[in-house]
Design a protein that fits this description.
The chain has 222 residues and is an alpha+beta fold. The chain contains six helices and ten strands. The strands form three sheets. The chain has a six-stranded antiparallel sheet. The chain has a two-stranded antiparallel sheet with strand order 5-6. A two-stranded antiparallel sheet has the order 9-10. The longest helix has 20 residues. It is globular, with a radius of gyration of 17 Å.
Length: 222
């Protein structure tokens, strides 16, 4: 607990520096909301601890799901890392202080460090209520990923926020050239939170789709 106030102060300073760096380009990324970024930093500082993440309902999908692995780009533009997902947050709402996914980057010794926050909403949940409108947070539009995809999940929108690891490609870029999966073989999984998986299962059942590995996927058709 003693380290959390220090992490929050560090996050606030980092956010100010990132905002200053963005100010010179593209109208500060479409007017990115500094206040919301500061709130996000304060809300997620505790998740430097995997134990805290687990207690909050975040879990790494179990093997052999594709999202169980350390995710790297296909074009050598960098990596993301490991995704810890809160199935209970995979709904129709987007909250700038409650990311659906925590992204942990492995160091060369395999130790995991909180690097980014990822906001995710399925197209099936967003599109009916927002026709022709892209989801956005912090003044930035989400990225659309169709189906089929490398993650074997339904079409979705996502936004990465590299608040805890500097990303020379940009605060909202999907991949970070400073992150590598080279040390991922030694990374220890925190396991799957029973509460998180149960929440995702209930969500999937309500939507009439199959539940798999802490996330949702399309039901099999006959």
């Amino acid at each position: 607990m003693r380290g959390h106030p220090f992490r929050i102060v560090t996050a606030l300073c980092m956010t100010v520096l990132l905002a200053s760096a963005m100010a010179g380009g593209a109208a500060a990324h479409k007017g990115s909301n500094l206040f919301d970024l500061i709130r996000l930093a304060a809300a997620t500082a505790r998740f430097h601890s995997l134990g805290q993440a687990d207690r909050a309902g975040y879990a790494q999908p179990p093997a052999p799901a594709p999202l169980h692995e350390c995710i790297s780009s296909f074009d050598n533009s960098g990596a993301m890392g490991f995704h810890y997902i809160n199935g209970g947050l995979l709904d129709k709402e987007l909250n700038p202080t409650r990311p659906e996914v925590l992204v942990y980057a492995p160091d060369r010794h395999g130790r995991l460090h909180l690097a980014a926050l990822e906001f995710v909403i399925f197209k099936a949940d967003w599109d009916p209520d927002h026709p022709g409108v892209m989801p956005s947070l912090f003044g930035e539009d989400f990225m659309a990923t169709g189906f089929p995809n490398r993650y074997d999940i339904p079409a979705f929108y996502s936004l990465h926020v590299w608040l805890w690891e500097f990303n020379p490609s940009g605060l909202f870029a999907p991949f970070n050239p400073r992150v590598s999966c080279a040390g991922a073989g030694g990374s220890a999984s925190a396991g799957s939170s029973t509460a998180s998986l149960a929440a995702a299962a209930r969500l999937a059942a309500a939507k009439g789709i199959q539940f798999d590995c802490g996330m949702t996927r399309k039901a099999a058709t006959a």
